[in-house]
């Protein structure tokens, strides 16, 4: 018999994270575009971010219907949080906005799946790209980052909002994420975690 799950955070009821999920307001609107392969992922940090932010929306799909309308929301300047050639520093994009809040579009998936989202959705590829500062490190201790500075979706969103909404801070959004990681470490056992995840 399958374990009952919380309908909100989608975690097993005995590991529900809802009590740790804050409700944070932001001027920035966050649009998270999740590749379908991420929906069943144990950590699913995009869902945690969407639940914790009042001005956020989570859409799931490879080809996203109605995307041009989502990107053309009145009163916002859209940008795509995706590093690489042509991406400008996020702080620079914010400064050039003259008070117009950003619509921060965040693809959620592996790098390969995120690139596929851009390929299948030309409206995404046409957005100005922004990037976080270099040298950031992930708290995601259960997975080796594919490249320096790679963050989980929820970490990237927190870092971005800390820049865009300074001096406001969004660290509270990471509480359920950290509890999730601690729970997984506890489930596998400290010895196995140290042997498999603390090697140089």
Quick synopsis:
It contains eight helices and six strands; from the N terminus they run βαβαββαβααβααα. It is α/β, with parallel strands linked by helices.
Describe the structure in your own words.
The chain has one domain: 3-Layer(aba) Sandwich (Alpha/beta knot), CATH 3.40.1280. It has eight helices and six strands; from the N terminus they run E-H-E-H-E-E-H-E-H-H-E-H-H-H. Strands 2-1-5-3-6-4 form a six-stranded parallel beta sheet. The longest helix has 14 residues, at 175-188. By secondary structure, it is α/β, with parallel strands linked by helices. Helix 1 (45-52) links the parallel strand 1 (29-34) and strand 2 (56-60).
Tell me roughly what share of residues is in helical segments.
Answer: 25-40%
Subunit organisation of the chains: single chain
Q: In percent terms, what proportion of residues is strand?
A: 5-15%
Radius of gyration: 17 Å
Shape by Cα distribution: globular
What's the CATH class label?
Alpha Beta
Q: Give the total of domains.
A: 1
Provide the CATH topology.
Answer: Alpha/beta knot
Give the N-to-C terminal Cα separation: 41 Å
